[in-house]
Amino acid sequence: MAAPRLLLTAAVIGALILMVASTALPAATEEHEEGEVGSSEDPTAEEEPYSGDLPSVGLRRYLARSWKPQTCDKNRKICKLKGSPGPDCCSKKCVDRMTDRLNCGNCGRRCRFTEACCKGRCVNLAFDRKNCGRCGNKCRKGSYCIYGMCGYA
């Protein structure tokens, strides 16, 4: 009586091993051999990243819907953080009102096309003696700023 049970147990274990091996086998044989005709796979293409450690699809969808970028109109401190474009908040965006052409000196004050924002003032870099060619570049006494160069001509 013990012999047939032993044979039955061995047969079940063998069948399980074959089933596990057959499900793992196609994944290993999916790669194409070199020189196979009609293969359009790029050998330099990167593989997709492993996603086994990612949370479930439902959790990812929930997190994607619930996450919203913070705007400075609700929390002005985010403009003071490292990596912020500027310390001031204008129209829900962090800006530097001393250099931003769209918010020069005050929120919403735009510089003209030919002007730049230097220390919160819109100036024409081509002809301004105190900001000739770039912000803070002063021309010597007696010389003029022409086309962004001091003493040109």
Short description:
The protein has helices at 2-28, 57-66, and strands spanning 88-90, 93-95, 116-118, 121-123, 145-146, 149-150.
Q: In words, what does this structure look like?
A:
About 8% of the residues have low confidence. Strands 1-2 form a two-stranded antiparallel ribbon. Strands 3-4 form a two-stranded antiparallel sheet. Strands 5-6 form a two-stranded antiparallel ribbon. It is built from two helices and six strands; from the N terminus they run ααββββββ. The chain has 153 residues and is α+β, with helices and mostly antiparallel strands.
How far is it from the N-terminal to the C-terminal residue, by CA?
115 Å
Largest β-sheet summary: 2 strands, antiparallel
Helix- and strand-based class? alpha+beta
Overall 3D form: rod-shaped
The number of helical elements comes to 2
* Lateral strand order in the biggest sheet: 1-2
Number of strands: 6
pLDDT average, as an integer?
A: 76
Rg, please? Answer: 34 Å
Secondary-structure element string: HHEEEEEE
- Helix percentage range: 10-25%
